[in-house]
Write a structure and sequence with these properties.
By secondary structure, the protein is an alpha+beta fold. It has one domain: PH-domain like (Roll). 27% of the residues lie in helices and 34% in strands. It contains three helices and seven strands, in the order ααβββββββα. It has a seven-stranded antiparallel sheet with strand order 4-3-2-1-7-6-5. β1 and β2 form a beta hairpin.
Length: 142
């Protein structure tokens, strides 16, 4: 039979879990290219009125399984993860004019828009349904 955890062991477990989560979030933001995007496209305090929550998206090589918020207005495309996952993932506001190419493809029974922002920046793949309200701002699909 195992002895119950004492307060010090519980504190150590919580601290190590928080540390692992922080490291994983940093690695995810770095590998995906989100940190590079944030340097150029930080949304600051901006949050659009029109937005959709729990959207599937892929930034660079990292898939964000239904925890991205997608929104926008005439200023640009807004992307942000859920609040609890924002460590190292600054909300983004990408001007529509910076989206150079848009392609729509089927991805596992779901339409996805592929957005190219230019050389040196990660490609974005976003569930098409979340972008449909903003088609007037987006380039025509190739």
């Amino acid at each position: 039979m195992h002895a119950p955890l004492d307060e010090l062991q519980i504190a150590a477990l919580i601290s190590s879990s928080a540390g692992i989560f922080s490291i994983a979030s940093f690695v995810q933001a770095t590998v995906s290219g989100w940190r590079r995007l944030a340097k150029r496209y930080s949304a600051g305090e901006f949050e659009p009125d029109r937005r959709k929550y729990l959207v599937w998206a892929r930034v660079g090589r990292v898939t964000y399984q239904h925890y991205i918020t997608v929104g926008g207005d005439e200023r640009g495309l807004y992307l942000a993860p859920l609040y609890v996952l924002r460590m190292f993932h600054t909300p983004l506001l990408i001007p529509w004019s910076d989206i150079q190419v848009r392609t729509r493809k089927l991805h596992f029974f779901m339409n996805v828009d592929i957005l190219d922002l230019g050389e040196g920046l990660p490609q974005l793949r976003i569930e098409s349904e979340a972008l449909d309200p903003f088609l007037a701002y987006l380039p025509s699909a190739a």
